[in-house]
């Protein structure tokens, strides 16, 4: 399994870091088999696998439940798990308690927290020995305020983002995700910190990329964000396979010889 130090080495050497979300055992198995550098158990699971309109309804229990399945599917991959909405704002004390619980119960290697608010309590997590990943730019848990839109497009907001990253680094945050920001800002940010920066909708200049599993595979999603590239078509493959199954049952072609237990238990009876 790669370590936090390996990602810093990859940044130094210029080797891009690959990250993909996974939410369950099969998606984690696929990501590990393909050789992904790290897996994110994103709170996007609320939208991709639970069907909510945003990530706001996702709970700490949801994150633990899914992360444990991902760990079983990817025992040898570095896993980051999202702190969900409402679990780190009420007080620093509650944030620390919830973060410790998520880290301890999820089996993840690091926990990710959205926004600059993290600055206020991250030292407690680092004191406890928890690797913490930041997340700036578009922070989907704040969708009610921001919408799902590009962020930090003014000079002031861009400078503020870079300053927050420098604070994160000084506090001991190990990595950060930058979502939906102008590419020149992301590139500048990556040059100004030793922390590996993983981009999603942040251009080519970050130290790595992250995408959502269901977006990469075109699997049960609607119109994807602009920054998504679809590399597969699970919807097409799945609907085709399910359609063939339906036809074969209707046409009595399934089950067949190979899929039937034919040992006779009523051999001595006439006419069954
Ligand atoms: N499937 C999926 N992929 C994601 O990348 C993702 C999630 N879900 N859920 C959590 C957040 C939400 N994210 C989103 C969701 C939608 C847009 C989007 O539709 N953006 C439009 C622009 C919308 C506007 O300007 O009003 C785009 O064209 O990119 C962007 C990020 C990123 N994350
Ligand atoms: C989009 C990524 C960065 C995320 O936070 C998630 O999948 O929840
Ligand atoms: Mg998230």
Automatic annotation (TrEMBL):
**Alphabetized UniProt keyword annotations:** Cytoplasm, Magnesium, Metal-binding, Methyltransferase, Pantothenate biosynthesis, Transferase
Please provide, in alphabetical order, the Gene Ontology terms of the cellular component aspect for this entry: cytoplasm
UniProt xrefs under SUPFAM superfamilies = Phosphoenolpyruvate/pyruvate domain
- Binding of Mg(2+) occurs at 43, 82, 114
Whether Secreted counts among this entry's keywords is: no
- GO terms, biological process: methylation; pantothenate biosynthetic process
Instruction: Kindly identify the residues recorded as the active site.
Output: 179
E.C. numbers: 2.1.2.11
Cofactor needs: Mg(2+)
Matching InterPro entries, A to Z? Pantoate_hydroxy_MeTrfase, Pyrv/PenolPyrv_kinase-like_dom, Pyrv_kinase-like_dom_sf
Q: Which CDD domains match?
A: KPHMT-like
Q: Which family does it belong to?
A: Belongs to the PanB family.
Q: What does this protein do?
A: Catalyzes the reversible reaction in which hydroxymethyl group from 5,10-methylenetetrahydrofolate is transferred onto alpha-ketoisovalerate to form ketopantoate.
The name this protein goes by in its record = 3-methyl-2-oxobutanoate hydroxymethyltransferase
Instruction: Provide the taxonomic classification.
Output: Bacteria, Bacillati, Bacillota, Bacilli, Bacillales
């Amino acid at each position: 399994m790669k370590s936090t130090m390996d990602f810093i080495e990859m940044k130094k050497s210029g080797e891009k870091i690959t990250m993909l979300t996974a939410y369950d055992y099969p998606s984690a198995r696929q990501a590990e088999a393909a050789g992904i550098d790290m897996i994110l158990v994103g709170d996007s699971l609320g939208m991709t696998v639970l069907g909510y309109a945003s990530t706001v309804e996702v709970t700490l229990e949801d994150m633990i439940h899914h992360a444990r399945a991902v760990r079983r599917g990817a025992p040898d991959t570095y896993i980051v798990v999202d702190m969900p909405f409402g679990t780190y704002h009420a007080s620093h004390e509650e944030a620390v308690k919830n973060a410790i619980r998520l880290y301890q119960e999820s089996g993840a290697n690091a926990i990710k927290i959205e926004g600059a608010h993290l600055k206020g309590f991250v030292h407690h997590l680092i004191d406890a020995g928890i690797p913490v990943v930041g997340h700036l730019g578009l922070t989907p848990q704040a969708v009610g305020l921001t919408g799902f839109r590009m962020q930090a497009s003014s000079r002031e907001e861009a400078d503020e983002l870079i300053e927050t990253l420098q604070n994160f680094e000084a506090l001991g945050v190990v990595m950060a995700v930058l979502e939906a920001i102008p590419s020149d800002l992301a590139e500048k940010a990556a040059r100004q910190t030793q922390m590996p920066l993983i981009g999603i909708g942040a251009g080519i200049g970050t130290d790595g990329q992250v995408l959502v599993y269901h977006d990469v595979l075109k699997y049960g999603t609607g119109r994807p964000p602009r920054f998504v590239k679809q590399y597969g078509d699970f919807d097409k493959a799945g609907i085709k396979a399910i359609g063939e199954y339906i036809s074969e049952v209707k046409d009595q072609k399934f089950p067949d010889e190979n899929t039937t237990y034919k040992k006779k238990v009523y051999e001595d009876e006439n006419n069954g």
